[in-house]
């Protein structure tokens, strides 16, 4: 498979109304760049006519490639598949509902070529519902910024440009497409952010609501934990468990000395209970650490397994 200049990756889940206009707008913008390009549409198990419509448009838009999932695996998996299939030196990700504006793509690429590895869009004027979307996002953006040290205004914007190495070296799972800049920074990417347009969704329905925020936050915690202790969980569990075992043992030794050499009655002392609890909990934590260490190895060994299954690829 020969390399090309630009790949645009688009996850689609029941976007039949949006696909035709989306491709037309992309064609208009991408042809002005004077480079080779492809558009990789990943159908995430749509139950409407999205796939038929994509197939019908293949002839009109030869740059179109379609990956069809066997079922709905979620936006992160669809993006991951797009990244896997992308042949471009520069990869652009965006939503398929025209909330992102294809006309921002040239500016993203220009910024990338100033010497960045990821350029993230910033929806300065986000056109989404306030309470269910914008406020949870504001909170999430604040937490992510503090927790990760990667300071952006808008992590969740799908419209982004990446150098090829970045997308080929990060692995997505759960809801992690929202944290691609963070994952990229773990990888060592130079990241920039530029304001982009954002439009209200005109056709079709949003697939998300408030309930996702909860899952997003859990995924974030898991990811931060992984960054720190992914390779050696025993480092934290071992330290905690070992410390507790030592402290508990010291307490028990002290009490034993009191009992044996000074003949004191130690039966009713709260300290006795504390010492025992510390030892038991410490041993448990240590055991958990060992188990986690095993899990991590399993995790790394299973990395080769895809997080999605493909029914069909239309080239
Ligand atoms: N999407 C997807 N799989 C899903 C949910 C969404 O591929 O399970 C796609 C969807 O078709 C769209 C993009 O992800 O292209 C963003 O979804 P949506 O517009 O519903 O999210 P919002 O803009 O409301 O955050
Ligand atoms: Mg949308």
UniProtKB/TrEMBL annotation:
**Pfam families, alphabetized:** Glycos_transf_2
Name the GO cellular-component terms: plasma membrane
Query: Entry's SUPFAM superfamilies?
Result: Nucleotide-diphospho-sugar transferases
For this UniProt record, the keywords arranged alphabetically read as follows: Cell membrane, Glycosyltransferase, Lipopolysaccharide biosynthesis, Membrane, Transferase, Transmembrane, Transmembrane helix
GO molecular-function annotation terms?
undecaprenyl-phosphate 4-deoxy-4-formamido-L-arabinose transferase activity
| One GO BP annotation of this record | lipopolysaccharide biosynthetic process
Q: Which InterPro entries match?
A: Glyco_trans_2-like, Glycosyltransferase_2, Nucleotide-diphossugar_trans
Which spans of this chain does the record mark as coiled coil? none
Q: What is this protein called?
A: Glycosyltransferase family 2 protein
What species is this protein from? Thermosulfuriphilus ammonigenes
Q: What is the lineage of its organism?
A: Bacteria, Pseudomonadati, Thermodesulfobacteriota, Thermodesulfobacteria, Thermodesulfobacteriales
């Amino acid at each position: 498979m020969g390399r090309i200049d630009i790949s645009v990756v688009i996850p689609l889940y029941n976007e039949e109304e949006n696909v035709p206009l989306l491709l037309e707008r992309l064609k208009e913008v991408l042809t002005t760049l004077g480079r080779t390009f492809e558009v990789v549409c990943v159908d995430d198990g749509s139950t409407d006519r999205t796939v038929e419509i994509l197939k019908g448009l293949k002839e009109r838009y030869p740059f179109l490639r379609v990956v069809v999932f066997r079922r709905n695996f979620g936006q992160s998996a669809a993006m991951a598949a797009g990244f896997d299939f992308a042949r471009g030196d520069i990869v652009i990700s965006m939503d398929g509902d025209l909330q992102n504006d294809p006309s921002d793509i040239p500016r993203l690429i220009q910024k990338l070529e100033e010497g960045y590895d990821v350029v993230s869009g910033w929806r300065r004027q986000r056109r989404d519902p306030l309470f269910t979307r914008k406020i949870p996002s504001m909170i999430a953006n604040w937490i992510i910024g503090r927790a990760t040290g990667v300071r952006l205004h808008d992590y969740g914007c799908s419209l982004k440009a990446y150098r090829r190495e970045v997308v080929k070296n990060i692995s997505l799972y759960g809801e992690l497409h929202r944290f691609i800049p963070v994952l990229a920074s773990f990888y060592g990417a130079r990241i920039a952010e530029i304001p982009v347009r954002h439009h209200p969704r005109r056709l079709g329905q949003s697939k998300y609501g408030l309930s996702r925020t909860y899952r997003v936050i859990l995924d974030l915690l898991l990811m931060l934990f992984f960054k720190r202790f992914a390779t050696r969980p025993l480092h934290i569990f071992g330290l905690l468990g070992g410390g507790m075992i030592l402290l508990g043992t010291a307490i028990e030794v002290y009490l034993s000395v009191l009992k044996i050499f000074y003949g004191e009655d130690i039966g009713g002392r709260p300290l006795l209970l504390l010492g025992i609890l510390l030892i038991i909990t410490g041993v448990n934590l240590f055991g958990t650490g060992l188990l986690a260490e095993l899990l991590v190895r399993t995790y790394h060994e299973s990395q080769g397994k895809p997080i999605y299954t493909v029914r069909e690829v239309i080239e």
